[in-house]
Amino acid sequence: MLIENIEKLIDENGSTLIIKERLLLLKDQLVAYDKELTGCRKKVSALADMICYLESEIQNIKLENFTFTENMEKLHSPDPHDYQCSLCGSIKLKRIESTFQETFGRFDAKNAFFICLDCGKEKVIKIDPPK
């Protein structure tokens, strides 16, 4: 009876050697999965750092773009430097003409001719080139 029960257990579960081999195989798989999980966690951490860096770069580029756009709009406006009319003090000036001043064979500055949209007075403003 005892031998029959042992034989039945061996038939159902296999011998202890087979069970031990299966357990060792499962242990090896578990160790491999644990290493893979550790590697994935490191990658996730590195990717999260990269995302933070890229988001800050995006914010910096957006700020640069905003500043650039603001400066470009100001430069392309009729009166980019908010000059004032010497007669009435209005800042509603419209550029009507520009000429370059030649100094020592180079164009160094520009004379910009403005007209005041409020009083109609013309004004000449010397604009130095950017350095």
Structural description of this entry:
The chain is rod-shaped. It has a three-stranded antiparallel beta sheet, with no helix packed on it. Strand 2 (106-116) and strand 3 form a beta hairpin. The chain folds into two domains: 2-73; 78-127. The chain is built from two helices and three strands; from the N terminus they run ααβββ. The protein starts with a helix and ends with a strand. 4% of the residues are buried. With 131 residues, it is of the alpha+beta class.
Topology of helices and strands:
Blueprint: H1 2-13, H2 16-75, E1 93-103, E2 106-116, E3 122-127
Antiparallel strand pairs: 1-2, 2-3
Task: Pick out its properties.
131 residues; alpha+beta; 2 domains; three-stranded antiparallel β-sheet; 2 helices; 21% strand
